[in-house]
Design brief:
heterodimer; A: about 210 residues; mainly alpha; B: about 325 residues; six-stranded mixed sheet; 15 strands
């Protein structure tokens, strides 16, 4: 993994979030409290603005810095969750190295596990984890099988899409939609949607850069 | 929306600056990261720090001062503060006796304080307040929410810390007060978050929201508006039921503190009317109101409505409630 990829990924994520303003806002109005898009936009913005200071860092140091910045910028529940992801991913890369796809998949999974622990949530509770956990598992198993980059990216995008769509039929037991009970059924979770968008953005970036 | 605003983005800092200027004898304001401390740093005691989203004033900054908090960290309106605020506040006020965080039980607050606690380079502990008996799970949290009872926890813990008690003793008292406290709120209107510009929920002139939270999040049920006594009767019944179910109320301990708290847009005249009925009804349940507090102590911006909080006293809690306090919002005995 190289730091320039992280910088390009941040820009792609920002573009994807901005392009889905009305969709994210309406999802959050339906079952959240209406601030998800604003928080995601603010988070993407500060990371993109860090380009210059990140450029000279190693990938793990850059991810650690991104995590710390998000932690002090976003607030609410999504700040600590996203920050935990980047900081744990950074820790895994720092300790184990970043030179193989297996190590990168393991670092991604470590980040997702940090969200799971911080949020005390799991698959099936109508949160971002319904996208992230299946993606982390698929990523690790494809990496272990030495799948090529194109197959990995395409499969992860499909997995993310399925996880996101699956939140529609769930009752929320964690996150902002908890407490709405059956009223939340029929609505896609906004956090799952934004995670799916981010994964799609990064996978598309990697696929495009291969051509 | 009709509010006193210059620029929506400046509301928080302008309000904090006004608070600091009005109470310059009591507090210092620090910006970026935002936190407020006592004017004169306390020495040789556990540092008590609280914080949470803004919009609940005077919670928490109004309780900074002798006998209560050492610092408070205000987030954006109804949004948890971030760990860098807690770290900076702790760095500023700790006096080598450890730091105790008092945190209302909302997912965002819990996670941000948790991360701050993990990063803090010195001994610390956390009291989670969860006095709201309205709902088991609300929109904003897992488990019971921390609401107006937090004021009683902050007062008692602050008093014990001022007396020189150790960190774990302060935490134990905070946990005890929280466990003996129950609150239930009712809203007559919604609040309007300035950045949103429109009411958080729709409610007609003929309805009330029973069990509402301090962010205007839904409670137990939407009901038809009725006479005050009937509303108070339901609030009191919920609290008594909660204390009974949790097996808190025991024979021989029947003295309590009754807090009638306004949510921001209900006049004191009505709050006293509620108190009048609530005290009588608790009496009928064998609970004698030995201490009282009536006013706007944990608000929800401009929501009309009120909450009733009952804290079952024992000698220790009574002593720490009565002890001197000198803050912007609570002051007696000094």
């Amino acid at each position: 993994m190289k730091t320039p990829l992280i910088l390009s990924a941040a820009a792609s994520i920002q573009t994807a979030i901005l392009a889905h303003e009305s969709e994210l806002e309406s999802l959050d109005r339906e079952i959240g409290d209406g601030d998800h898009y604003i928080n995601m936009k603010r988070g993407a913005q500060v990371v993109v603005e860090m380009q210059a200071e990140l450029a000279t860092l190693t990938p793990d140091a850059a991810l650690q810095k991104i995590g710390m910045k998000l932690l002090s910028t976003i607030g609410g529940a999504s700040g600590p969750l996203l920050a935990s992801f980047f900081m744990s991913m950074a820790k895994s890369l720092k300790e184990n190295g970043d030179d193989t796809i297996v190590k990168i998949a393991a670092a991604f999974a470590a980040g997702v596990d940090a969200i799971r622990q911080r949020g005390k949530a799991d698959v099936g509770e109508k949160t971002m984890l319904d996208v992230l956990i299946p993606v982390a598992n698929t990523f690790q198993s494809l990496a272990a099988q030495h799948a090529d980059t194109t197959l990995i990216c395409n499969t992860l995008m499909q997995t993310a899409e399925q996880g996101m769509l699956a939140t529609k039929d769930l009752i929320a037991t964690k996150g902002r939609a908890a407490g709405l009970g059956e009223r939340a059924i029929g609505h896609i979770d906004p956090g799952a949607k934004s995670c799916q968008l981010m994964i799609e953005a990064v996978c598309t970036l990697i696929l495009d850069s291969q051509v | 929306m009709k509010k006193f605003i210059n620029n929506v983005d400046d509301i928080l800092v302008e309000s904090l600056s006004g608070f600091a200027a009005a109470h310059a004898d009591l507090v210092n304001l620090h910006l970026e990261p935002n936190f407020i401390t006592r004017k004169h740093k306390a020495v040789n005691k556990v540092a008590i720090i609280s914080g949470g989203g803004s919009g609940h004033e005077p919670l928490h900054a109004g309780y900074i001062g002798y006998g209560m908090l050492d610092a408070a960290c205000p987030g954006h309106v109804f949004t948890s503060p971030t760990p860098d605020q807690m770290l900076a506040a702790a760095e500023s006020v700790h006096a080598d006796q450890g730091v105790l965080f008092i945190v209302k039980n909302y997912a965002g607050d819990v996670m941000n304080f948790e991360m701050a606690a993990e990063m803090l380079p010195f001994e610390n502990a956390t009291v989670l307040t969860s006095d709201d008996c309205a709902v088991i799970n609300s929109t904003y949290t897992t488990g019971r929410r921390g609401v107006a009872g937090t004021v009683i926890v902050e007062k008692c813990v602050g008093s014990l810390a001022e007396a020189g008690a150790h960190l774990q003793a302060c935490k134990a008292l905070g946990d005890k007060v929280n466990s003996r406290t129950a609150s239930m709120g009712v809203a007559l209107t919604s609040c309007t978050v300035p950045a949103a510009g429109r009411p958080t929920f729709d409610i007609s002139d003929h309805e009330l929201e029973m069990g509402v939270g301090i962010h205007g999040e839904p409670g137990r049920r939407r009901e038809t508006m009725r006479a005050a006594d009937a509303i108070v009767s339901d609030l009191v019944a919920s609290i008594v039921e909660d204390l009974t179910v949790r097996n808190i109320k025991t024979a021989g301990e029947n003295e309590a503190l009754l807090l009638v708290n306004g949510f921001g847009a209900t006049p004191l005249m009505e709050l006293y009317l509620l108190y009048n009925t609530a005290a009588k009804l608790f009496n009928q349940h064998g609970i004698q109101i030995a201490r009282s507090l009536v006013g706007n102590y944990t608000t929800a911006l401009d929501m009309a409505g009120a909450s009733i909080t009952l804290c079952l006293l024992d000698d220790e809690i009574k002593q720490h409630w009565d002890s001197p306090v000198h803050t912007a919002a609570l002051r007696w005995g000094k």
